[in-house]
Each structure stands twice: as C-alpha cells, then as structure tokens.
Write a structure and sequence with these properties.
It contains 17 helices and 26 strands. It is about 30% helix and about 20% strand. Strand 20 and strand 21 form a beta hairpin.
Length: about 575
C-alpha cells in the first residue's frame, strides 16, 4: 500500500491563489500529494499524485482535441468516485471543453427513471460526448439514441480508442466557464448551473481561507461525498486541489454499506478535515459505533464540517456521545450553509465554537414568523432548536427579506438573499429560470428561509417545502423528526408535505411501511398521526409506501419532498391507507 504524503516537502502551501482549475492543478503537480481511492473494506484501490492526475489529464485532452471536439463544447461525465472521473474532468479542462458531472443511479427507481433523468440532462446540457463507468455504458448508449449530436459515448475505452495527437493544449482560463452543475433537486426539470472559473476561485478562496476551513500545512482530508454534488466536487476535490492537499476517498455506496470505514480512514491516515450532511453522522453513529475498533483515534479531526441539508443538533449530540471516548472533540464541528448557485459555500461558523444552537418558541415561530427565545429550552413540545450556521464569506453579502423585499431585523424569519463574486451568472440556456432567482443588481434568491442572529444566519427550511395550515407555518422537518423521535419510524422513512383541497390545505405524511399485517399497518397509521398531532397540533393523512417503491431522493441523497408529493398526486401510493386528494 502506498500512503501519499500528507504534506509536500518542498512545495509551498498556496490557498486557492489561482485563476483557473488548470492553473491550480499545474501548481499542485509540482508536489508529492494527491488523491487515494479505497473500497468498502478499507483496502487501497489506487493512489495518484497530483502530478500523475495532470499527466493523465493531458493525454485525455490531446485525444479530445485530436478527435475534433471544439473549444466550449460540453462533455457529460457520470461522476462516480474513481480515477476515470479525474482523467475526464481535468482532461476536458485542458482541452477547453466544459465538463457536465451527473449522478449515478441513487436509491430505488429503476432503469427507466435513470434513463429519463439522463435524457433530460443530455437535452439541458447540449452535451456532444458522454463518458461513464463501465456499469453505466449501456444506459448511456440507450439514452444517446435520441441525441444524434452525441459524437462519442461509452466508458473510458471510448477515449482510449481515440488517437493521441501532438496538438497544443488549450486550457480553460480565468475568463472562461468551468463546468455545468446540475442542482441536486432538479431531475425532472434540470437546471444546469453555469460555474465560471472566476466564481469558483472566489468561492475556493473563502472556503479554504480563515473564514472557512482555514486550511493549514499538513492538513489531510477524507471524503465519501458524491462528486456529482457541489459539496463533493468543490468541497472535496477542488478545495484539496487548490491547497495541494492529499485526500482519501470512499464511494458514497461503500460509505452507506460500511460507514465505519469513513472514520477508520480518518484515524488510520491521521486526517484533519472531513465533512458530511447530518444523515452521514447519523449513519456513522447508528451503524458504525457498534463496530468501532478499540484503537480508533479521532483526535486529529480538526474540522468536522456539516452542511448539505438541515443540520440536526440531536444527531450531532449522539455522534459526540458515541465518539468522544475515541478522541473526537465536539468543538471540531463546523456548521455551514451553501448551495450550488453560489458554487458551494455561503456561510461558515467560527472555528472552535462547535455546533451552537438557538432555542426558539415553536408557537411564535409558526404564528408570527418570529424566532423568539424559548422560555424553557428543555421543553421539546414548545421549543424548536436550530443550529447556527455562521457568517457570510468575505466579499459577499447576505440579507433576510420579507415578501415585499423589506430587509428584516434579527429574529424575523424571511427569505435568504445573497450577493457576491461566487454567484452563478445564470442557469444554462434558461433565462426565465435565471430571472426568477437572480436580480439585475446581482442578488440571488436562495429559496431558503431563515433569520439573522447577531450577524449569523439560522436556516429554518426551504420555502417551497413550507406547510401553511390555517395561517400557521409548519416545517416538514418538525413533523418528520417528531415521528422519528417517538421511535415510530426510522430516520429518513417519512416525508411530510401539503396539498390544496376544496377544504383548504391538507397535511400528508408518506411513511415507509416496513410491516405487512393489517393490524400492524393500522397501528402505524395511528402512531404517526398521533405523533404529528402531539408535536405540531395538526391533523394529517398518513400514506403507507411499500419499501419496494421507497421514498424518492435527490442525487445528493437528500429526501425529495416535492417528488414524494408528485408521486402521491400521480397515484403511485394509491395502495396505501389514504387515497390521493385533488391537487
């Protein structure tokens, strides 16, 4: 086994002080660090220095140029965690092509659902070539039949068959676009986010600098995050590259199978930076902690980042309880907030403060959209606890506004807007969607709700997911977490949303039914309805979803409430305990 160095012996650390992706790979290639890939058993599959990554990318670039692909054309890549993605992504950068990373199949949904997603992404991106892992070559070929503009598709062998010609490279530069990122929730109507080199470099400067991860000489990262998602691609490929860092990878599938391997790699390779959404910490606690080896040592883990979904304080508390005896320091938690339309990061908390929470009165939050401090923070029925997500990155601005555009004061809940050099120029060839979220003076409507507290943002949820019942705001997370807290269902087994009926707004809770008898199913419906009534004081219809069908997820592994609602209204859950009402 080759363990790539954690630090370069002669190359000076530069923190994102570059103008383009090719420029930062050129610099990192002068050192000894790089990426290493592991399987679910923690066995090393391959190790590449950044120099080797660059050399392989140059070969791919000369082949693409020699095959006649024009500068600015788009190359779709199924972004699994493997060296072939690095070859193709960076090869495109040196060839002047725009990579379009897309997901591999996630969760239950079948071949046709993934083919439909691929076709939509082909159409939205205008790709002229598509490269994927061997397991997906057949999917690419089948989807490509409807797109005659695709001149090349297949696995890496499709590139291997091209002739490497002695042509000059034409790397993307500071004034160019960098790649196209599909947002994780946009599978039905894909929004291709245009990421420019300049915006990416501005975001990386914030991420890696003192206001973000504060990357230091000798830091090492470990990641299982998918490279088709902004947190994986930027946070755990571009950020390590831009700071010449070594990074150790697991695939998301292998993490899901054996979450303990994530922590084992941190311990074994003395890593200092790793990130996860809340559900990753939860999975590591529930399934990993019982398997933790006696010699597990998490004392080197300096930055335990949290982002990608609503941060759950209860999950973090349980993680600390499980792994503090193994050297984990709860002050290492680094909550953050971001989205792909801003490349990745918008806010970070200060280092060493851990995951701080704000306990607010649940009733005032629902009725008056005000986050007033709870009189008794320990009263779970009357209190809502939110994790504080920090201050906006340098050179960026953040405001919370009401529906009229008025900027709100501290503790007033409204829509979050952000402006700065990391903002996307727009959605690819979709000016209508761009105009809906991006103002002429550069302010982006994030679509998220939250409030400010002494200059720090507290995110309360997605505006489109908000449930309004009799004038009260009800967050779907409150419903789902209440069901889980009462041990009615497992984490991730429920989805709450609302529908319009002739009698007004109606709350629906879709629940995976892991029981089969009529008696057990009826009991599950009663328990779920009772938990919702007790927690948020609303009645609901409970829909039982067969485990074989499952609840839909976004490409980044988050629950998709909007697609659950679509499935419900389409009658896909008609065999359950409640029938779809009119939309």
């Amino acid at each position: 086994m080759i363990l790539l160095p954690t630090r370069n012996r002669q190359l000076a650390l530069r923190r994102a002080a570059f103008r383009s992706v090719p420029e930062m790979l050129d610099y990192a290639a002068r050192g000894e660090t790089g990426p290493t890939f592991y399987n679910a058993r923690g066995e090393q599959l391959s190790a590449l220095s950044w120099r080797e990554v660059r050399e392989r990318a140059h070969v791919v670039a000369r082949k693409l140029i020699g095959a006649g692909f024009a500068r600015g054309e788009r190359l779709l890549i199924t972004a699994d965690t493997w060296p072939g993605f690095f070859d193709t992504f960076f090869g495109a950068q040196y060839a002047g092509l725009l990579p379009v990373p897309v997901s591999i199949p996630v969760g239950i949904g079948g071949k046709e659902a993934y083919l439909d997603q691929l076709r939509r992404q082909f159409a939205a991106s205008g790709a002229v070539a598509a490269i994927g892992i061997d397991d997906l070559v057949g999917f690419l070929a089948e989807a490509a039949t409807e797109f005659p503009a695709l001149r090349l598709h297949g696995g890496l062998e499709a590139i291997d068959t091209l002739v490497e010609k002695p042509v000059d490279l034409r790397p993307l530069g500071a004034a160019d676009h960098c790649y196209v990122q599909f947002s994780s929730g946009s599978t039905r109507q894909p929004h291709g986010i245009q990421i420019t080199q300049a915006a990416l470099m501005a975001n990386l400067a914030g991420i890696t600098g003192p206001a973000g991860l504060d990357v230091r000489l000798g830091d090492r990262a470990v990641s299982w995050l998918p490279l088709y998602h902004d947190m994986g691609l930027i946070g755990f490929l571009m950020a390590p590259l831009s700071t010449q860092m070594s990074i150790d990878y697991l695939t998301p599938r292998d993490f899901a199978r054996r979450p303990m391997q994530w922590l084992n790699l941190i311990s074994r390779n003395r890593a200092s930076i790793a990130y996860s959404p809340s559900f990753g910490y939860d999975l590591a606690t529930r399934r990993g902690a019982p398997q933790a080896p006696a010699d597990l040592d998490l004392s080197t883990w300096r930055v335990a980042g949290i982002g990608g979904d609503m941060v759950r304080p209860d999950v973090l508390d349980r993680f600390v309880e499980a792994f503090a005896p193994k050297g984990f320091d709860r002050s290492a938690f680094l909550p953050s907030y971001g989205m792909a339309e801003v490349c990745l990061a918008i806010t970070f908390c200060a280092h060493g403060t851990g995951a701080r929470t704000d306990s607010v009165d649940r009733t005032r939050l629902a009725d008056a959209q005000r986050a007033e401090p709870a009189t008794d923070p320990h009263d779970a029925d009357r209190t809502r606890r939110f994790v504080i997500c920090g201050t906006v990155l340098p050179e960026h601005q953040l405001e919370v506004r009401d529906e009229t555009g008025r900027v709100l004061a501290d503790r007033e809940v409204g829509r979050i807007f952000v402006r700065g050099p990391s903002i996307m120029p727009g959605y690819l060839e979709d000016p209508g969607a761009t105009d809906a979220v991006l103002s002429a003076d550069g302010w982006l409507d994030t679509g998220d709700l939250g409030y400010l507290l002494n200059g720090e943002i507290v995110v309360t949820g997605r505006a489109k997911d908000l449930i309004i019942v009799n004038g009260r705001n009800v967050w779907p997370q409150d419903i789902e977490w209440a069901i889980e807290a009462r041990r009615v269902v497992k984490n991730g087994d429920s989805a709450a949303f609302s529908i319009d009926t002739t009698d007004g707004e109606r709350v629906i809770v879709a629940v995976l039914a892991r029981v089969s008898s009529d008696e057990a199913r009826e009991a599950l419906v009663r328990d779920v309805a009772g938990a919702v009534r007790e927690a948020v004081a609303v009645d609901c219809d409970v829909v039982l979803v067969p485990p074989t069908l499952g609840l839909p997820m976004t490409s980044s592994g988050k629950l998709s409430r909007s697609r659950t609602k679509t499935n419900y209204l389409a009658g896909l859950y008609a065999s359950s305990s409640a029938k779809p009402a009119a939309a």
